[in-house]
Specification:
DNA polymerase, domain 1; 222 residues; alpha/beta; 6 strands; 11% strand
Amino acid sequence: MASGSGRTRRKAVIFDLDGVLATTDEQHYRAWKAIADREGIAFDRRSNEAFRGVSRMACVEILVRDAARTYGPAEKEELARAKNELYRSLLEGLGPEAVLPGVAGLLARLRAEGILLAVGSSSRNAKLILERTGLAGSFDAVADGEDISRSKPDPEVFLAAARKLGVEPGDCAVVEDAEAGIDAALAAGMLAVGVGPASRYAKSQLRLEGLDGLEDLSLLLG
C-alpha cells in the first residue's frame, strides 16, 4: 500500500518502553533516590529528569558529578549494581495498571494493519517489565540492553530491533519520549515520533502528547 507521496508505507514500528508503553518512572526515581541518599548526594525529581533515555552507567556518571568525592570505576559499577537490585525489587509490584493510555488500542490497530512491532530499550530489565505489564506477547521482537554496547543517542538498539524484525531501517518508525531516543532514531534513518516530553523536542518529526492521541495511522506509517 503506498502513501500519497508515492513511497511504500512503513513496515514496522519500534517503541521505547519506559515512558512510552508503560511507566516505571516512580520505581526508577525511588531506586536512584535511595542510592543518592545513601551516598549523601543531593537528588530530587528534577534531577531524575536528566536520567531519561540513558544507560544505567551513564546515569551513575551524572549522579556522581554532584558528589563530594571522586568515585573510581569499581565504585561506579557497585552503585549501578545496587540501583538495579533496588529497582528490580520495586518492579515486583508492577502490573498491567502501569501500561499507559492508548497503548493497547494502538498496538491492536497496528497489528490489524499487518505492521511488525518491536521494543527498542536500553534497559536490561525490558523483558521483565513487558512480562509484568502483560505486554510481552504483543511484540515480534525485543532489542534491549542485553543486545547493545552503546546506549542512546547511539542508534544501535533501534538498528538491532530492525534486524530482528528483518526490515530495513528506513521502513521503521520509532516512538520515543526522550530526546536521546529521538536523536538515536534519526541517526538510524527512521521516522522519529516524540511522545510526552519528546513531543516538545524540535527534532521530533511527529509529535504526540500521548499514544491515545494518534487517530490517523497514516501519520505514523506514511
